[in-house]
Amino acid sequence: MGKPGRDLHLGPPGEERVADATLEPLCGSLPHSHITLTLALRAARGCPRRDHRGAVGRQDSAGRAAGTALHTSRPIPVVASGREMVVLSVPAEVTVILLDIEGTTTPIAFVKDILFPYIKENVKEYLQTHWEEEECQQDVSLLRKQAEEDSHLDGAVAIPAGCGNGADDLHQMIQAVVDNVCWQMSLDRKTTALKQLQGHMWRAAFAAGRLKGEFFEDVVPAVRKWREAGMKVFIYSSGSVEAQKLLFGYSTEGDILELVDGHFDTKIGHKVESDSYRKIAHSIGCSTNNILFLTDVTLEASAAEEADVHVAVVVRPGNAGLTDDEKTYYSLITSFSELYLPSST
Ligand SMILES: [Mg+2]
Question: Does the annotation flag 20 for ligand binding?
């Protein structure tokens, strides 16, 4: 990365040097606007169908090309008013931005340290409060059925059917459900029964203001600007669509559901499978190369690329580290403000 006052050598040895540039990223707040550097997102590995090497060029403040393309696919570090900035140009064919949540829009810690612990800490109280409700009874029935299927597993916790009306009986049954839920969560299981109860608990907690969705500070301003520039914004997360809507509907920024054009979860397919991205494009009614997918997980990025989707890997505090090869191969951003939409000029 360049240091203030130093020429920036952005490409392989012998390629063009760029210096003294100031940027106008889509969501940045840089004070001057002389030259904008842009970088095309890289296309699929080993596939020359698009601008694989990522044409990089200087542009003037109106976005007109003003320099010779460099042959690199790396984001460009640029010294601007003493700050080192990076911008990544979104190809003109992109009309849809598809966002992962965990590690991309939202700290992994929010999910790991807040959402899931909330279940363990509150499941007993939730069951005691909602026990008589039909929905809660359905959740318990499903968990009991799952427990029967799990009975051969080490440490499995059975949930007895109610056989009496006494307070002790109820207490024991609730405790068995609590123990079962905690056991399943300790194994990071994703059974429908567990997910259903978790979903209902989170819904109650978000609606009551006990939980609020968290987003990195650059996310909401960027999404607003993308939409103003005519982009559509969709979510693709392994969290259920219902949970996604809670996160956006009850966030620290208020109800921001209106910023999202639609939601996808693993019902459309797993995030590490290319076909999922083809199905998403089909569902949106666009081509896969009209989509830019932002994720922190390179396996997901790779699957999306395979389907001809543009990708950028999002590096956030608390995310798993990337290998040197991954850092070299993928276009990386650390903030949504680093994405530059040519159409916004
Ligand atoms: Mg993620």
Answer: no
